[in-house]
Write a structure and sequence with these properties.
By secondary structure, the chain is α+β, with helices and mostly antiparallel strands. 25% of the residues lie in helices and 34% in strands. The protein is built from two helices and six strands, in the order βαββαβββ. A hairpin with a 2-residue loop joins β4 and β5. Keywords: RNA-binding. InterPro entries: Euk_RNA-bind_prot, Nucleotide-bd_a/b_plait_sf, RBD_domain_sf, RRM_dom.
Length: 79
């Protein structure tokens, strides 16, 4: 399942996001979206988890969670 993670701290790294979601299952892809001009985070990312049960567990556990002083939002990404 492909998940959309929004409202991330601008200082959070792709590795930190991967570690956060790996606590709930296998993560195959993690893409932090960066501004092309500045190279800085835009505050959202896409995470792919192959196991549906693990992905749903990650959504339940992490949606509205406080991570690095930001209340993140996690939902299923639209195709």
């Amino acid at each position: 399942m492909k998940l959309l993670v929004r409202n991330l701290s601008r200082k959070m790294t792709e590795h930190e996001i991967r570690v956060l979601f790996s606590e709930h299952g296998d993560v195959t892809v993690c893409n932090l979206v960066l501004d092309q001009e500045t190279g800085l985070s835009k505050g959202f990312a896409f995470v792919e988890m192959p196991n549906t049960t693990e992905a749903k567990a990650a959504i339940s556990a992490l949606d509205q969670a406080d991570v690095q002083k930001s209340k993140i939002r996690v939902k299923l990404a639209k195709s």
